């Protein structure tokens, strides 16, 4: 149990500290960094999905006025480490996926750089590619582990036996296959870097759009054989990331390479929106084969999920899609497996709630289907399968309020009077529900420095604010830990000049950085008392914070959806979406609400719109721009409400808070699909749910 | 993006001469599609001739009770014009269903109908496309066909390697309304002025999918006339799309109903705005019941060719088109009764 | 090919040389050092580059700078006058109508354009009665703001912020 902070600044809905800069547009993002005499980069990409580059004719490019350098695999510098094949840019002539970086032009203007890159003529020795995921792909293999260090497969009891016998006594079994699409993070700020290599000082400065300046620096140091002291990464503002900026991608290495080819000259490299569909990570499509068995009262006797997904041939990323089904509901017999196909495709990576986001689709639709088979209220079905302890570890929950979230949500939403296929004018109306979950995580490393200067407390930590509110809420935490007014505290983030901080990922930022700040603040008070002297300074490390391993820490939630389906055209609208969450103590209700509704809206977007349409013939996303890769627009959004329970959790950290960046996107798509089913009777098991899929079931 | 010369001539005649004299020259108006294409490498002109401030921006009454839209009038201005809103709601609705406020402030009457297909393979210069690069083949056949044609295509399973194959659709909403309104297009070209019925402005791919329209090189749209609708006529535009806003049509319908007769134009289903003449013929004289309209549309769509492809192809457009037409006509006849 | 042009940007006259290929967006960002309009897609598909161009909201990525010689441009930065934020900017702050902030300057310029379009009585796709005067309702604002994507998805805060600033 931790020593919880007395909330004073915590709990206040303070306006964002970086807000004024953002509404004026004067907060500078990576590529906007004002530098003297910048040069502009434009990448060259492979146009085959697999093969070898046999020649690159750069004569036309180098002949252009204003071109400063053209780098290709045949002349680029050799990297210190090519262990991570995604980062090994221009190191070999091998093409592992269409769109791979095979060159870069550096020029005086962005227009000339682009023209020159377009003029590079490439010849290939093209080989047959394999870029189509299938549930029975012959190359399916079992990865050693899945993302975040989870076991690849788990099993308890005998699912097969339970599936074979439950029919007696009115029990039910269900076998269904669900699938989620390929998704691209598409932060609105394209991945971008300004880079400057000082050859005399052997020092690299990167203004990079990243969710973690320190992990970013570590990766660059590894690839280029540099010491940490030789690299500074700066990133005060991030124009969204949702995981894609959680690890650097190949574009960062290319920018560094370009800077090193042009010592003393800052270079700017921003990916185009189209290039983001090849180079900036994405969420793998998933195929989820579900098995459920339940007795007639709805008590689960078996739950199994067998997941098939893809990774790239050159680098493995195994999304942990089967993980949430391991712990959501009680069942004596359980199984989860993950199998991957390694294809000639771009490298998948983190996207908001990897694992939980796709992994709360199949199971939560399956629960709805099971409720229907049993003639039970889907809320009640979930309540009946509430586990007393974490089914996976056997540990008690740090706090679990799923049932309260379901009940409270049902009450607020009018669930008891839910329509089933009710027709209102031209619209068919239905309600749907699904659960949400996200683990509460804390990273092992992060250090905060705290000093007293000119009458103010100044904390420094290399944290990131990608819109999450870190600029605003870290001072709230620090102020309460110090017992001072939040207005007397400055927190500086986004620079490797500040102490090491973990990545903003896994909804762990506030837990981790906040814990380090609390350690520092408490140590500061212990050492210097209530009236410190100018220059008093101390640091605090997250590993000095109390850590509880005896409980299973998770945030839970329930989402309710009203779907309306046009009876003529099948157009689907969601006028109402409600999420009720148990996320511990909320530090800033204003920014927290934005995080939750943002996640829910992205979940709505995943349900109705998002789909990177893969063309396996050529090995690329066909709809690789924002006109055709649809993300939800303002008009798609009606009423979206996020509320949270007053939840006390003394085990998670000194703030009593759980991460909130990701839980909002989990379960939403299932709730939408369940609502569309209630409206139309059509059960859509492959996302997105679009009008063509419901059309055959309309009157 | 390849370099180009930019010219801003003094008047329309000079602009036409400039473009006519340079085989690789293009007109620039609002730029919402051309600038997009310059950056993608889809358009690679040597000379860009800016006509945005040269043609008329006025919307004027015609003696016959119709309206003349100057080529430089913006989509926003036309949609907001009181006369258009009252007399041609189908046009105002089509314009307002297209693009976004920012784009409508830039896009023009002359430019909008000349925007090019949003076929993703057309817009990606790394994939073969007969429209962009004649003779290279059609990447869309067997690929992502959700936004592609079901009418006016070369057959059930077009040969993707044939030089004439193209299953692209025309993306303009405005053009669908103008097709239903029997609008007339005034042009000035190297050979002088002429008037083209709007319904004949756009082509089917035929043997040359690179040509979207019947306009000659250097021929500039100067105005579009809307003929008067009969007293009591009602019109509406219905766009069905994957997002509630800011998305191209899967299927769209422009309908004009008068005295039991109906005019129907479809968007999102063909290389050009599709006038459903067969259905109109069947429905002539009414009654315009749901059942009758659906049956007439079934006849219209009897020749439709669904295009298979990834994500299930586009066969859903056949029932969707029939249903959407029926729903649109129903709205107009219900209002009437 | 280069051209010399003059732009009025946020009240200041700026002379500059541009490539004929240079968009207004790149002219502002790369040549004049004004980062306020953002580049999200460079193809008119996201709205992040929205500016007020001769008083109307427009996409600076689809405008060739050379074609707008002499134009009057207002960016979100220019909407704040004498250190005072524009009412739309204040409403965005109060409603937390943004997270990462990257789409925000474009949203704000767009909102100012939307309010002006309401004042002119312009209809939208969701205006029921085309012959009447549109009202500043949630649905009207949401439709009119749909040209500005927000990946952080602050839409449920953006719409009331715009309504509030419009005095609805």
Describe the overall structure.
The complex is a heterotrimer of chains A (699), B (337) and C (168). Helices cover 23% and strands 25% of the residues of chain A. Chain A is built from 16 helices and 28 strands. In chain A, the strands form seven sheets. In chain A, strands 3-5-1-14-11-12-13 form a seven-stranded mixed β-sheet. Chain A has a five-stranded mixed β-sheet with strand order 9-17-16-15-10. In chain A, strands 18-19-24-25-28 form a five-stranded mixed β-sheet, sandwiched between helices. Chain A starts with 18 loop residues before the first helix and ends in a 5-residue tail after the last helix. Chain B is of the alpha+beta class and 337 residues long. Chain B has two domains: 46 residues, Uridine Diphospho-n-acetylenolpyruvylglucosamine Reductase, domain 2; 283 residues, Uridine Diphospho-n-acetylenolpyruvylglucosamine Reductase, domain 3 (2-Layer Sandwich). Chain B has eleven helices and twelve strands. In chain B, the strands form three sheets. Chain B has a five-stranded antiparallel β-sheet. A four-stranded antiparallel β-sheet of chain B has the order 9-10-11-12, sandwiched between helices. Chain C has two domains: 78 residues, Roll (Ubiquitin-like (UB roll)), CATH 3.10.20.30; 79 residues, [2Fe-2S]-binding domain (DNA polymerase, domain 1, Orthogonal Bundle), CATH 1.10.150.120. The relative contact order of chain C is 0.15. The mean pLDDT of chain C is 97. The chains are: A alpha+beta (699), B alpha+beta (337), C alpha+beta (168). Chains in contact: A-B, A-C, B-C. Chains A and C meet through helix 1, helix 3 and helix 14 of A and helix 1, helix 2, helix 3, helix 4 and helix 5 of C.
């Amino acid at each position: 149990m931790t020593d919880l902070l007395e909330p004073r600044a915590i709990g206040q809905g303070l306006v964002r500290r970086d807000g004024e800069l953002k509404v004026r547009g004067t907060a500078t993002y990576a590529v906007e960094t004002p530098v003297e005499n910048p040069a502009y980069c434009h990448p060259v990409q492979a146009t085959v999905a697999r093969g070898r580059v046999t020649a690159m004719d750069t004569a036309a490019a180098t002949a252009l006025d204003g071109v400063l350098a053209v780098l290709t695999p045949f002349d680029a510098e050799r990297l210190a480490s090519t262990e991570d094949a995604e980062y090994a840019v221009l190191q070999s002539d091998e093409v592992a996926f269409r769109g791979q970086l095979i060159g870069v032009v550096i020029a005086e203007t962005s227009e000339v750089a682009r023209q020159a890159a377009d003029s590079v003529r490439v010849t290939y020795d093209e080989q047959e590619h394999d870029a189509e995921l299938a549930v029975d792909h012959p190359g399916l293999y079992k990865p050693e582990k899945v993302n975040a260090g989870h076991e690849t497969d788990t099993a308890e009891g005998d699912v097969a036996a339970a599936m074979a016998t439950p029919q007696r006594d009115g029990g039910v079994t269900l076998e269904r296959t669900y699938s989620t699409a390929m998704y691209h993070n598409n932060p609105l700020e394209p991945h971008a870097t300004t880079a400057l290599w000082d050859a005399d000082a052997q020092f690299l400065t990167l203004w990079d759009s990243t969710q973690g300046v320190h992990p970013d620096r570590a990766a660059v140091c590894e690839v280029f054989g540099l010491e940490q002291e030789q690299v500074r990464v700066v990133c005060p503002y991030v124009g969204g990331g949702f995981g894609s900026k959680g690890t650097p991608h190949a574009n960062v290495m290319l920018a560094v390479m370009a800077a090193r080819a042009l010592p003393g000259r800052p270079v700017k490299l921003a990916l185009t929106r189209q290039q983001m569909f090849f180079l900036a990570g994405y969420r793998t499509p998933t195929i989820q084969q579900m098995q459920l068995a339940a007795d007639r009262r709805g008590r689960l006797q078996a739950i199994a999920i067998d997941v098939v997904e893809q990774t790239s041939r050159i680098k493995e990323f195994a999304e942990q899609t089967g993980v949430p089904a391991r712990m959501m509901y009680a069942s004596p017999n359980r199984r989860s497996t993950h199998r991957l196909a390694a294809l000639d495709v771009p490298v998948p990576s983190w996207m908001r709630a990897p694992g939980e986001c796709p992994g709360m689709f199949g199971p939560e639709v399956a629960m709805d289907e099971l409720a229907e088979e049993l003639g039970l209220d889907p809320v009640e079905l979930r309540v009946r399968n509430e586990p007393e302890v974490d089914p996976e570890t056997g540990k008690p929950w740090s706090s679990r309020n799923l049932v309260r979230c379901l009940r409270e949500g049902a009450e607020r939403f009018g669930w008891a009077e839910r329509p089933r296929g009710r027709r209102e004018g031209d619209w068919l109306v239905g309600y749907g529900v699904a659960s949400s979950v996200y683990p509460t995580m804390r990273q092992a490393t992060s250090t905060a420095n705290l000093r007293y200067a000119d009458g103010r407390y100044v904390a420094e930590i290399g944290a990131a604010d990608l819109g999450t509110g870190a600029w605003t809420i870290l001072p709230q935490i620090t102020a309460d830990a110090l017992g001072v007014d939040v207005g007397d505290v400055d927190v500086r983030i986004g620079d490797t000049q500040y102490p090491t901080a973990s990545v903003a990922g896994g909804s762990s930022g506030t837990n981790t950085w906040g814990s380090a700040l609390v350690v520092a603040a408490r140590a500061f008070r212990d050492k210097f008392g209530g009236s410190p002297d100018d220059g008093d300074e101390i640091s605090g490390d997250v590993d000095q914070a109390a850590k509880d391993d005896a409980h299973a820490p998770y945030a839970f939630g329930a989402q309710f959806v009203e779907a309306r389906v046009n009876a003529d055209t099948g157009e689907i609208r969601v006028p109402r979406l409600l999420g009720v969450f148990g996320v511990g103590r909320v530090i800033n209700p204003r920014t927290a609400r934005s995080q939750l509704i943002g996640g829910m809206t992205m979940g709505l977007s995943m349900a109705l719109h998002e789909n990177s349409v893969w063309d396996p013939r050529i090995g690329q996303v066909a709809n690789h721009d924002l006109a055709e890769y649809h993300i939800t627009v303002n008009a798609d959004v009606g009423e979206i409400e996020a509320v949270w329970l007053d939840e006390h959790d003394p085990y998670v950290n000194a703030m009593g808070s759980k991460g909130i960046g990701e839980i909002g996107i989990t379960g939403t798509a299932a709730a939408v699909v369940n609502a569309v089913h209630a409206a139309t009777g059509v059960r859509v098991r492959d996302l997105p749910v679009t009008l063509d899929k419901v059309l055959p079931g309309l009157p | 993006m390849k370099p180009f010369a930019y010219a801003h001539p003094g008047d329309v005649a000079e602009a036409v001469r400039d473009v006519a004299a340079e085989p690789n020259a293009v007109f620039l108006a609002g730029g919402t599609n051309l600038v997009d294409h310059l950056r993608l490498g889809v358009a690679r002109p040597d000379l860009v001739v800016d006509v945005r401030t040269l043609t008329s921006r006025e919307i004027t009454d015609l003696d016959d009770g119709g309206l003349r839209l100057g080529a430089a009038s913006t989509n926003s201005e036309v949609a907001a014009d009181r006369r258009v809103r009252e007399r041609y709601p189908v046009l105002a609705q089509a314009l307002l269903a297209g693009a976004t406020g920012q784009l409508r402030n830039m896009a023009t009457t002359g430019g909008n109908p000349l925007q090019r297909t949003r076929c993703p393979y057309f817009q990606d210069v790394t994939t073969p496309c007969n429209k962009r690069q004649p003779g290279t083949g059609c990447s869309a056949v067997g690929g992502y066909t959700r936004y592609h044609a079901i009418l006016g295509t070369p057959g059930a399973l077009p040969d993707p390697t044939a030089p004439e194959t193209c299953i692209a659709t025309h993306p303009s909403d405005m053009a669908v309304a103008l097709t239903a309104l029997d609008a007339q297009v005034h042009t000035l070209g190297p050979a002088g002025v002429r008037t083209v019925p709007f319904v004949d402005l756009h082509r089917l791919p035929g043997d040359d999918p690179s040509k979207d329209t019947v306009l000659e090189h250097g021929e500039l749209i100067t105005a579009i006339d809307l003929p008067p609708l009969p007293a009591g006529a009602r019109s509406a535009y219905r766009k069905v799309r994957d997002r509630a806003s800011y998305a191209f049509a899967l299927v769209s319908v422009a309908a004009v109903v008068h005295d039991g007769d109906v005019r129907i134009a479809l968007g999102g289903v063909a290389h050009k705005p599709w006038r459903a003449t067969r259905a109109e013929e069947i429905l002539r004289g009414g009654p315009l019941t749901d059942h009758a309209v659906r049956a007439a549309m079934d006849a219209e769509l009897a020749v439709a060719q669904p295009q298979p492809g990834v994500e299930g192809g586009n066969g859903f457009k056949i029932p969707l088109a029939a249903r959407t037409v029926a729903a649109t006509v129903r709205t107009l006849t219900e209002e009437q009764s | 090919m280069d051209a010399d042009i003059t732009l009025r940007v946020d009240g200041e006259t700026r002379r500059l040389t541009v490539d004929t290929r240079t968009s207004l967006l790149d002219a502002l960002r790369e040549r004049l050092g004004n980062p306020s309009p953002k580049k999200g897609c460079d193809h008119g598909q996201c709205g992040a580059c929205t500016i007020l161009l001769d008083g109307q909201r427009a996409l600076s990525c689809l405008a060739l700078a050379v074609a707008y010689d002499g134009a009057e441009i207002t960016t979100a930065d220019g909407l704040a006058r004498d250190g005072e934020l524009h009412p739309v900017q204040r409403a965005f702050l109060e409603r937390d109508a943004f997270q990462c902030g990257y789409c925000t300057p474009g949203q704000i310029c767009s909102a100012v354009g939307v309010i002006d379009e309401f004042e002119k009585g312009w209809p939208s796709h969701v205006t029921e009665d085309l012959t009447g005067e549109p009202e500043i309702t949630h649905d009207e604002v949401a439709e009119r703001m749909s040209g500005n994507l927000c990946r952080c998805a602050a839409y449920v805060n953006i719409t009331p912020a715009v309504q509030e600033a419009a005095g609805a």
